[in-house]
Amino acid sequence: MLSQLRRIVQDVAQEPVLNNALAGLVSNVKNALNTECCSVYLANYEQQHFMLMATDGLNPEAVGQVAIGFSEGLIGWVGQREEPINLAQAQLHPRFKVTPEVSEDRFSAFLGCPIIHHRKVLGVLTIQQGESRVFSEDEESFLVTLGVQLASVLVHAEMRQAASQNSKSPQSTGQLQGLPGAPGIAMGEGFVLEPSSDFDSISLKKVDDPDKELLRFYKAVKITKAEFNRLAERMAGHLPPDALAIFDVYHQLLDAASLGNEIEKQIHEGWCAKSALKRVVEKFARQFDDMDDAYLRERGTDIRDLGQRVLNHLLDTEQRHHKLPEKVVLVADNVTATMLAEIPRSQLVAIVSLKGSVNSHAAIMARALGIPAVMGLDELPLFHWQSKRLIVDGYRGQILVAPAEAIVAEYQTLISEDVQLSARYQSEMHLKAQSACGAPFSLMVNAGLAIELESSQPAYTDGIGLYRTEFPFIMRNRFPTEAEQIELYKKVLASHSTKAVVMRTLDVGGDKALPYFSIIEENPFLGWRGIRLTLDHPEIFLVQIRAMLKANIGQGNLHILLPMISDLAEVDESLRLIKQATFELTDELAGTEVQLPKAKVGVMIEVPSIMYQLPELARKIDFCSVGTNDLTQYLLAVDRNNPRVAALYDAMHPAVLRALHQMSLQAQGLQLPMSICGELAGEPAGVLILAAMGYNKFSMNSSNLAKIKWLLRRVDMSELQLLLPEILACQSPKQVRLHVQRFLDQKQLLNQLRA
Asked: Which helix (H) or strand (E) element contains residue 220?
């Protein structure tokens, strides 16, 4: 049963044309369950109906013609109830709807199962039979299991088909919905960087020049055979002859009489080399997987390994042919800092990260650079994005693929309006950061990427509120030396020489990995990260603290920030090591006239446990900085990188806002300086709520600073304080946003915050 399920799902996933995939699906299900009819209906939310998309047993002429309303018939009932409906005599049920076009009079038994993806009903899968009987528990379980597995495959297929449409007419533009990662709109060409070379990432497509694809395949096979010869020679003295025989088997499989012949046949039928390879390898591997003999089943692994090697060489030659577009929309499974470093900033216009969500590190980097980003589109294969003309709408999380010229013109107008709004904000950058009634604010920048220091306009900011020291670590292939760190930190401190610079100690782990220090954990966000890692490695922590303290000589504006603090003992141990580093440097400087300035030390409030220890904390440290990104993640128990639960992650959640309000009141009572350095500070709605709570020190990406200053100068603190009780009484993030939008609309500010 399991192998049947796997085969059915794989067949749907392999077929590039959705209608063909669905036609194959209903036939396979009908045969697997030995029933008389199987049909699939897909939901159309614009038209509010289920459309019959494929059937094996009903009238084939009804496909694409018969629509059943969401509240009509047994199909609508399955969709409404979101659970299976199993009936022995469907015609007698009050919800049964007579639809003459489908010719289902001869069927009595009915079993319908919803296909659901991320709480949304995508469609209904049904089986029917002439005999009046209730389908068995095994048959119902099979259909339910199939529906669950089909959900993501169908989304994948629909997105793939939408992305494949061209721009021959205004109706043909493919529109994909992801998650808004960074605001803004941009147009450019998709460029896949460091693609994962696995068959799951390959989207099937046909080409017009099969001869060219054959040559590419032959070249990849030649390289692969040469690779096997080298491997066999290298291992000849270490492996027995029977083990070395696997390389001969691989050679034979690649010959024309075996896999090679099948792949050539697929290419002659119009498939590109990658697609042909995928279709043949998965077909043969699946046949071996289904065999009873354990030895033969293992050959499926050999087939996949062989196919993977050929695919790697196909991709290598393909990548060498791709030139960097003039306007790059960077597409990757998960965008990293090293990827950003490979694209000239002058050419990078947008980011598409197939994994991750609104506050994954890729999104944070995009906002830091001031370029739009869309996240969470992992249902679409990575290679499908290469060289496609794309419009990236970071406001709404939408991507338009191969847009028509009329749509391009509309978005060009929006981009122009965005530029005009940005110029309006920039025109007030030189003015004081204060409310309309004169209440002062301190606006600082988050930094870490070199580009940010170039664009942060230090003359018009109050310093660096968060310098992410991990980026210099991530960008190297080893831990940076003390001397390298000193040189870098000196530049950062000097860039805001008369203002505070808050340097966070190394904060890796979670979704920030060091290429030379691998951390593999099942729950990385709850694991070995931040201060937990550096306290376990004092040799790393002490070198970094020494470098910071040395760089601060002659400056005196250093503030040290400790990340991921969850316990007071971690604060005590960190302070002990900072004290040790200070004593060491004091001894080194003894006998000289050089003075070692005292650095202020603060704690990042991002783990909920430390929120309840503020009184004790206030006696040990100089300041606090609230990281709303991780605080939200931990309060709501939501992995901010997981698109499946991305909708649950929201810093506007009432629980998060109430926690921030309580901390503000407590910090004021303790006279403990507290700032906000999370993404919430850079959002117009977020900064208004935080200001209403009493926060007056915000650190944000430099791209947001002008807009936030412009907005704060147009609101009165008394107005915000009247708004606060309404906000704190809200029961959902949606209500919170509606209240803030209403407030901005009343002040005629809403339409001036985005095009």
From this structure: helix 210-235
The model's confidence at residue 246, banded by pLDDT at 50, 70 and 90, is low
Strands of the 389-393 sheet, one edge to the other: 174-177, 398-401, 389-393, 185-192, 328-332, 348-353, 373-375, 179-182
DSSP secondary structure of 534-577: HHH-HHHHHHHHHHHHHHTTTT--EEEEE-S--SHHHHHHHHHH
Q: Which residues contact 87 (CB under 8 A, 6 or more apart)?
A: 74, 93, 109, 110, 111, 134
CA 263/CA 275 separation, integer angstroms: 9
CB atoms within 10 A of CB 106: 11
Residue 458 has pLDDT above 90, yes or no: no
Distance (Å) of CA 647 to CA 5, 69, 178, 633: 30, 27, 11, 12
CB 563 within 8 A of CB 606: yes
- Please name the residue that has the structure tokens 């030390």: 601
Residues with catalytic roles: 361, 677
Q: In what order do the strands lie in the sheet with 49-56?
A: 67-69, 49-56, 37-44, 120-129, 109-117, 85-87
Burial 317-328 (b: 16+ CB within 10 A, else e): ebeeeeeeeebb
412 to each of 187, 323, 326, 542, how far by Cα in Å? Answer: 8, 25, 17, 51
Long-range contacts formed by 129-135: CB under 8 A, 24+ apart? 129/35, 129/36, 129/37, 130/36, 130/106, 132/88, 132/89, 132/108, 133/88, 133/108, 133/109, 134/86, 134/87, 134/88, 134/109, 135/86, 135/109, 135/111
615 near 609, Cβ under 8 Å? no
* Neighbouring residues of 747: CB distance < 8 A, sequence distance ≥ 6: 714, 715, 719
Q: Which of the two residues, 362 and 650, has the higher pLDDT score? A: 650
- Which residue carries 């109430």 as its tokens? 658
**Residue ranges of E strands in 171-255:** 174-177, 179-182, 185-192
How far, in Å, CA of 600 to CA of 586, rounded? Answer: 17
DSSP string, 591-608: TSS---PPPEEEEEE-SH
User: Which pTM does this prediction carry?
Assistant: 0.74
Structure tokens at 511: 């979704």
Q: Give the whole-angstrom CA distance, residue 111 versus residue 618.
A: 64
* pLDDT at 507 > cutoff 80: yes
CA distance 159 to 354: 13
Q: How far does the chain reach from its first CA to its final CA, in angstroms?
A: 54
Give the three-class secondary structure for 407.
helix
Q: Are 365 and 629 in contact (CB under 8 A)?
A: no
What is the SS3 assignment for 500?
Answer: coil
For residue 172, what pLDDT band results from cuts at 50, 70 and 90?
very low
